[in-house]
C-alpha cells in the first residue's frame, strides 16, 4: 500500500469517531500495537529532539524499504509515533523523504494537541524524513 493509501485509510478510520475523547482512546490503543524498538536503540542517539516526552526512533533498510521501530514513555505520544510508523514504514526511502503527510491536518490531530506535543509531532515527522533521506542516499 502506498503512503497516500495508508493516509486515506487513517482518515476514514478517524471519521468513524464522533468526538476527540474517542479519537484519543484510539490513538492510545494504536500505541499498544507499535512495533517496539530494540532496547539497544533506546539511547540518546535515537531520542527525537524537540519532544516533551521521550521518543526513540530507529530506521533500517529491508531490501529497498525503510522499516521504523519506535517507543515512547507517554501513551498519547506512543500512539502518535505509531500512526507515523504505520504510514511511513515499509516504504521506499525516497518516498519517505518526500512524503506529504496530509492526514495529520485532515484528522485534526495538530489542533487537538498541546503546543509542546504539536512541536513534538513536527520533530517526529522531520526525523523520519531525515532517515528516509539518509537511507536513500546510502542505497
What number is the mean pLDDT? 94
| Second-tier CATH architecture | Alpha-Beta Complex
If you compute it from the alpha carbons, what radius of gyration comes out, rounded to the nearest whole angstrom? 14 Å
The class by helix and strand makeup works out as alpha+beta
Q: How many strands in all?
A: 3
For the report, how would you describe the main beta sheet? 3 strands, antiparallel
Secondary structure: elements and pairs:
Elements: H1 3-15, H2 20-32, E1 55-62, E2 65-72, H3 75-88, E3 91-92, H4 93-98, H5 103-106, H6 115-138
Antiparallel strand pairs: 1-2, 2-3
Please tag this protein with its features.
alpha+beta, Sufe protein. Chain: A, globular
Short description:
By secondary structure, the protein is an alpha+beta fold. It has helices at 3-15, 20-32, 75-88, 93-98, 103-106, 115-138, and strands spanning 55-62, 65-72, 91-92. The protein has a single domain (3-138), classed as Alpha-Beta Complex (Sufe protein. Chain: A).
Amino acid at each position: 500500500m502506498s503512503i497516500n493509501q495508508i493516509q486515506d485509510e487513517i482518515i476514514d478510520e478517524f471519521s468513524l469517531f464522533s468526538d476527540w475523547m474517542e479519537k484519543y482512546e484510539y490513538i492510545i490503543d494504536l500505541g499498544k500495537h507499535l512495533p517496539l524498538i530494540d532496547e539497544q536503540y533506546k539511547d540518546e542517539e535515537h531520542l527525537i529532539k524537540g519532544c516533551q516526552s521521550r521518543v526513540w526512533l530507529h530506521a533500517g533498510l529491508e531490501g529497498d524499504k525503510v522499516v521504523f521501530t519506535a517507543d515512547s514513555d507517554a501513551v498519547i505520544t506512543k500512539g502518535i509515533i505509531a500512526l507515523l510508523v504505520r504510514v511511513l514504514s515499509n516504504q521506499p526511502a525516497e518516498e519517505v523523504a518526500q512524503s506529504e503527510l496530509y492526514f495529520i491536518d485532515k484528522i485534526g490531530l495538530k489542533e487537538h494537541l498541546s503546543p509542546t506535543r504539536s512541536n513534538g509531532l513536527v520533530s517526529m515527522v522531520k526525523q523520519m524524513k531525515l532517515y528516509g533521506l539518509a537511507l536513500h542516499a546510502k542505497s
